[in-house]
C-alpha cells in the first residue's frame, strides 16, 4: 500500500459525525474495487463499531476523540479495504469484547457479532501507549473473475 492512499478522519464521538465517516468508507471501498455488497457490509460494520465506541467506551460522551483510517488492502489478488478505528477509551478489557450468545433473546448486544460476521478480518488491540482501543477490520471483494483469453 502506498501511504499516500490512506485516508485519515479525526472527529468527536458525536453520532451525527458517523454518517459522513460511513459515506467516506463506502466510497473508498468502491474506489478501491470492492463490490457493492461488500461495501455495504463495510458500512454496517463501521456503524456498529462507532456506536460501540460512543455508547460503551465513552459512555455517551460526545466530546471524545475517534480516529478512522481507511486504506486499500489486498489478499490473494482480491482488492479490499482496511479500516482502523482508534479511540481513547479508558480501562477497556479486550477479553470482554465478544459477541453475546445469539440464543439470549434480549435487545442490543449484537454489534460485535455483526462486525465479525460481515468483515473478513477483525482484530482488537490496545493503542500504543496503552490508552484506548484499536480495531482493525478488513473486507475484501469476492474472487476476481479471470478472462478466458
What does this structure look like?
With 149 residues, this protein is α+β, with helices and mostly antiparallel strands. It has a single domain, classed as Heat Shock Protein 90. It has 3 helices and 5 strands. Strands 1-2-3-5-4 form a 5-stranded antiparallel beta sheet, covered by helices on one side. A hairpin with a 2-residue loop joins strand 2 and strand 3. The longest helix is centred in the first third of the chain and has 22 residues, at 36-57. It is globular. The two termini are 29 Å apart. The model is unreliable at 144-149 (pLDDT under 50).
State the gist of this model.
The protein is 32% helix and 28% strand. With 149 residues, it is of the alpha+beta class.
Q: CATH H-level name... which superfamily?
A: Histidine kinase-like ATPase, C-terminal domain
Flag low-confidence runs: 144-149
Going across the biggest sheet, name each strand in turn.
1-2-3-5-4
Number of strands: 5
Number of DSSP helical runs: 3
Q: In one word, what is the shape?
A: globular
Q: How does the major sheet shape up?
A: 5 strands, antiparallel
| End-to-end CA span | 29 Å
The CATH topology turns out to be Heat Shock Protein 90
Strand content: 25-35%
Rg value: 16 Å
Number of domains: 1
Assigned CATH class = Alpha Beta
The CATH architecture would be 2-Layer Sandwich
Secondary structure class reads alpha+beta
Q: Look at the structure and give the mean pLDDT.
A: 86
Amino acid at each position: 500500500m502506498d501511504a499516500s492512499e490512506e485516508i485519515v478522519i479525526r472527529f468527536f464521538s458525536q453520532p451525527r459525525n458517523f454518517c459522513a465517516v460511513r459515506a467516506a468508507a463506502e466510497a473508498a471501498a468502491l474506489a478501491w474495487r470492492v463490490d457493492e455488497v461488500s461495501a455495504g457490509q463495510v458500512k454496517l460494520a463501521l456503524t456498529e463499531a462507532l456506536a460501540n465506541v460512543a455508547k460503551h467506551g465513552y459512555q455517551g460522551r460526545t466530546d471524545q476523540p475517534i480516529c478512522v483510517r481507511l486504506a486499500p488492502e489486498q489478499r490473494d489478488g482480491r482488492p479490499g479495504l482496511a479500516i482502523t478505528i482508534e479511540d481513547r477509551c479508558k480501562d477497556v478489557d479486550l477479553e470482554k469484547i465478544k459477541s453475546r450468545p445469539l440464543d439470549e433473546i434480549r435487545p442490543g448486544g449484537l454489534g460485535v457479532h455483526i462486525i465479525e460476521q460481515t468483515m473478513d478480518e477483525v482484530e482488537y488491540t490496545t493503542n500504543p501507549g496503552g490508552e484506548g482501543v484499536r480495531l482493525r477490520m478488513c473486507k475484501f471483494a469476492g474472487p476476481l473473475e479471470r478472462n478466458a483469453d
